[in-house]
Amino acid sequence: MIDSHAHYDDEKFDADRGDILQKCAESGVTHIINAGSNVDSSRKSIELSRQYPFVYAAVGVHPQDALSCGPHTIEQLTALSKEPKVVAIGEIGLDYHYDDAAPREIQKEWFARQIALAVDLKLPIIIHDREAHLDVLDIVRAEKGHEAGGVFHCFSGSKEMAREVLDLGFKIGIGGALTFKKARKPLEVVQYTPLDMLLVETDCPYMAPEPYRGKRNWSGLIKIVLNKIAELKGIDYETAEKATSDNAIKLFGM
């Protein structure tokens, strides 16, 4: 199993981070991509990748942290990207859900600049897209993000939105929301999306699947998401696990 998006640097893991990561390995998780939220978080992700053979890092600034960016941010991310286990620029994107997040124009500026960096470095991008789909697509197209490739993580859009993402060559990340009792759009998206374009993720410590919704998520719970994908696709669990793992390995070059 490959968890294509996690946040083990989060403070919610401070008390037992080592124990949980050991538990991940024992549960059959072979790779975890720990995504940065800002420069400091990206450094912590790299430290985790140095400590654990199965952890890889993505470096980037989350849209809600865009106000933390400054004149040296791209230079800092460029330096961090040279670490051997950095496999992506992320997570980056736009988030229009929270009123107290960074102003939209600042989010757009830093999303565009980080896409340009990824294209230059030939690294895929991990995109956060929350209630900002049209602007996200406009910027991805303007910055030729398809040249970098990547994944729309924790995808929450409709089947029609998924079609636009797939047409650009991006993969779709699916997590615990697929199992929620009132889930409708995620079910349609998984049924619509070709198996070779799906990744599975936790976004842990957030977005735990049923019956653990509201509790701290961890990578071993990906099995629940994979079982649901297998059910929706009419395939066995092993086929779903192998396909999504192969997709992640190919995209991130692990």
Radius of gyration: 17 Å
The share of residues in extended strands comes to 15-25%
Low-confidence runs (pLDDT<50, min 5 residues)? Answer: none
Q: Which strands sit side by side, in order, in the main sheet?
A: 1-2-3-4-5-6-7-8
Fraction in helix: 40-55%
Which structural category fits the helices and strands? alpha/beta
What is the element string, with H for helices and E for strands? EHEHEHEHEHEHEHEHH
CATH class: Alpha Beta
Largest sheet: 8 strands, parallel
| Oligomeric state of shown chains | single chain
User: In CATH, what is the homologous superfamily?
Assistant: Metal-dependent hydrolases
Total count of domains: 1
Shape: globular
The count of strands amounts to 8
Q: Give the name of the CATH architecture.
A: Alpha-Beta Barrel
